[in-house]
Amino acid sequence: MSPVPHDVADLALASEGKKRILWADRDMPVLRAIRDRFKRDKPLQGVRLSACLHVTTETANLMRTLHAGGADVLLCASNPLSTQDDVAASLVVDFGIPVYAIRGEDRDTYYKHIEAAIAHHPQITIDDGADLISEIHRKHQDLAEQIVASMEETTTGVIRLRAMEADGVLKIPVIAVNDAKTKHLFDNRYGTGQSTWDGILRATDMLVAGKKVVVCGYGWCGRGVASRGRGLGATVIVTEVDPIRALEAALDGFWVMPLAEAAKIGDVFITVTGNIHVLREEHFAQMKDGAVVCNSGHFNVEIDLPALERMATTINRRVTEHVDEYVLPDGRRIYVLGEGRLINLAAAHGHPASVMDMSFATQALTAEWSLKQPSRLAPRVYDVPAEVEDQVAQLKLKAMDIQIDRLTDEQAKYLRSWEMGT
Ligand code: ADE
After folding, report:
1. Which one of 61, 201, 217, 251 has the fewest CB atoms closer than 10 angstroms to its CB?
2. What are the distances in angstroms from CA 335 to CA 267, 304, 309, 310?
3. What is Dmax (Cα atoms) for the chain?
4. Beta 235-239 vs 255-256: how paired, if at all?
5. Using CB atoms within 10 A of its CB, is residue 360 exposed (0-12), middle (13-18) or buried (19+)?
6. Cα(193)–Cα(7) distance, integer angstroms
């Protein structure tokens, strides 16, 4: 039987990919429960769905779930360096899901793969970073009308989409899955927190204890990265532009200072701001010999690599698998991990399955919810409905065998009333 349409690195990798997809599935009980129900009820029957996501074992289990619900699904990569080629192969060979993703693909191939997702004429899209929906707005506005909803997985994507909404150019209803409590409170904090260090350790094998680690940005991802760095024994310095977040970092027990100061003392620098050129020439000029620099924000713009390239007299690529060495005129060396791309996916396998379980359960249930709406939503950015968040949290607690209390009637009444005082 000929495989479904695809562009992946090597179909012969499928058997290894399948083993790893099923291994991840063990840790995704909520998504499994949804898949079982979707198999029976087929709530997505016949719906064309294009997803532009990191092609990982966890994403594979989301695609299997949507497919089980009856959707006609297609997957392309949301980052050129995060694709797991064995997973891409297995989705095509073992699960009959079209995939367009090759690890290390160049820019042209990356956008050619997004075009394949657009040519699928989706009625639902799922993005991680808004590249798919941006391309639809740029080049295929005629398709916007048929799109019932577009889900966005990441903070950076939601920021882009809200900017489109504010400019009055958004043509498609968007649901900000990132902003759901069942997503960012867990995935951004505990997922990024752990997997960023996983990437740094796989890339460098360094001892973290005793190091001075500079975390740029104290959003949910920064909080996770900082707290896990402290757990590994580092002295953690946080840099921020937001006074409330800076205060929070200080009261959480971290050092807070301007990046210009931190640049002089840091051993490791991690950007998680979602902004451009956070680490730039003025900071590289101050760094110690041997400083390690990496990024865990969505796009590879947080470290100004072109500036570092201009400053360096020599660049030694791949001194070890994920590390490039930049030698400055005075002999100082700066080590850049994973080409400044998301280090947790470039050098490691991304967030653990157990946390992606909640993020992707939220995606699957939101897709189902969007199809149940009586009419097409207006082109705005929406929150995930509270009932979806509650359902995901309850299913996760059940899977973890954790019970919680209920309000007594008296307590419920107390919360509804305003007359009772001291
Ligand atoms: N983003 C971060 N980690 C991920 C993972 N394991 N799968 C898909 N997207 C991710």
Report:
1. 251
2. 10, 13, 12, 15
3. 75
4. parallel
5. buried
6. 32
Q: How many whole angstroms from 195 Cα to the centroid of ligand 1?
A: 9
- Supply the pLDDT for residue 170: 97
Residues 250, 272: Cα–Cα separation, whole Å? 17
Q: Which residues pair with 150 in a beta bridge?
A: 125, 174
Query: Which of 28, 52, 59 to mutate to test ligand 1, by most ligand atoms within 8 A of the CB atom?
Result: 59
| Residues β-bridged to residue 49 | 73, 124
194 three-state secondary structure: helix
Q: How far is the CA of 65 from the centre of ligand 1 (A)?
A: 16
Q: Write down the pTM of the prediction.
A: 0.95
Residues 142, 135 contacting (CB under 8 angstroms)? no
Structural tokens at position 12: 């012969």
d(CA 83, CA 2): 23
The answer to whether residues 211 and 267 touch, using CB atoms and an 8 Å cutoff, is yes
For 242, half-sphere exposure in the C-beta direction (CA atoms, 13 angstrom radius) is 11
Show the domains of the chain with their CATH numbers. Answer: 11-179+352-399 (3.40.50.1480), 191-341 (3.40.50.720)
Among 258, 248, 255, 298, smallest CA distance to 279 is for: 258
Query: Kind and range of the H or E element at 222?
Result: helix 220-231
Residue-level pLDDT at 421: 77
Q: How far is the CA of 153 from the centre of ligand 1 (A)?
A: 10
- pLDDT tens for residues 408-419? 999 999 999 988
Give the residues of the chain that fall short of pLDDT 70: 1
Q: Around Cβ 171, how many Cβ atoms within 10 Å?
A: 15
The three-class DSSP label of residue 321 is coil
- Structural contact between residues 87 and 55, judged by C-beta atoms closer than 8 angstroms: yes
Length, in residues, of the chain: 422
Pocket test for ligand 1, best of 27, 54, 188 (most atoms within 8 A of CB): 54
Count of alpha carbons within 13 Å of 285, Cβ hemisphere only?
Answer: 7
Task: Give the pairing of strands 72-77 and 291-295.
Answer: unpaired
Residue 419 confidence (pLDDT): 84
- pLDDT tens, 290-344? 999 999 999 999 999 999 999 999 999 999 999 999 999 999 999 999 999 999 9
**Secondary structure (3-state) at 73:** strand
Distances (CA, A) of 140 to 48, 311, 370: 16, 41, 22
Angle at the Cα of 171 (from 387 to 175), degrees rounded to 5?
A: 20
